[in-house]
Amino acid sequence: EVQLVESGGGLVQPGGSQRLSCAASGFTLSDYTMHWVRQAPGKGLEYVAAVSHDGGSTYYGSSVKGRFTISRDNSENTVYLQMDSLRPEDTAVYYCAREKGGYDYWGQGTLVTVSS
Amino acid sequence: EIVVTQSPATLSLSPGERATLSCRASQSLSNYLAWYQQKPGQAPRLLIYDASKRATGIPARFSGSGSGTDFTLTISSLDPEDFAVYYCQQRRNSPLTFGGGTKVENK
After folding, report:
1. CA–CA distances in Å: residue A4 to residues A28, A40, B28, B40
2. Counting runs of H as helices and runs of E as strands, what totals does chain A give?
């Protein structure tokens, strides 16, 4: 059974950093491009970042470019999102998703709250 | 960045009725468009990819059409479990932008 489990969310102060993890199981992680998508409370979906199957290429949404870094460790079956210089507007549920056609599997999400 | 616009924002319909949701892109996507359904407190679920291909396990009452800049998601006969928010996403160019969503509510 395919599973994606996010962790690392919580309360962080503006200007701070947080690292999210997405643990993958039930499939061969190295076969897939992986993504992070977020959703602010009561709002729609926003593309955050993507990393190619081998980690060689990364892509970012315009609102996080230069502040967030996506990476992966296929040997550990984990995808990461390093978030620096956090702002209150980064408050959201962060989802990890697998790309096949569209996003065919999603995690349950982890909430990041940026507030003093 | 490709801008994706969904309409209407809200659709008020009754069970058994037909739902037609629109998605328009600021430039041609060919057929690189996906549709998702999201219910409160849940992660989104993939319904349609490549504009018209149903994802695994998706009922036949969901269908997608269109190419280029104009796309449609049709639910042929609304089931009570279909009341939710629907998003389209362009997969033509990074960043893979989403539309703002259409809420299908029970009239």
Report:
1. 12, 20, 32, 19
2. 0, 11
What is each CA distance from B12 to A29, A43, B18, B25, B100, in whole angstroms? 41, 19, 11, 24, 17
State whether residue A102 sits within 8 Å of chain B by CB: yes
Residue whose pair of structure tokens reads 């998702």 in the numeric block: B36
Q: Is A16 left (phi over 0), alpha (psi -120 to 50) or beta?
A: beta
* Gap between the Cα atoms of A52 and A70, Å rounded: 10
Distance CA A91, CA B74 (A): 33
Using only the alpha carbons of chain A, give its radius of gyration: 13
Token couple for B17: 């009725």
pLDDT tens digit sequence for B25-58: 999 999 999 999 999 999 999 999 999 999 999 9
Any CB–CB contact under 8 A between A9 and chain B? no
Point out which residues pair with B82 in neighbouring strands: none
pLDDT for res A63 = 96
Q: What are phi and psi of A76, to 5 degrees?
A: -100, 0
Check B98 against A108: CB less than 8 A apart. no
Cα A47 to its chain centre, rounded Å, is 9
Helices (H), chain A: none
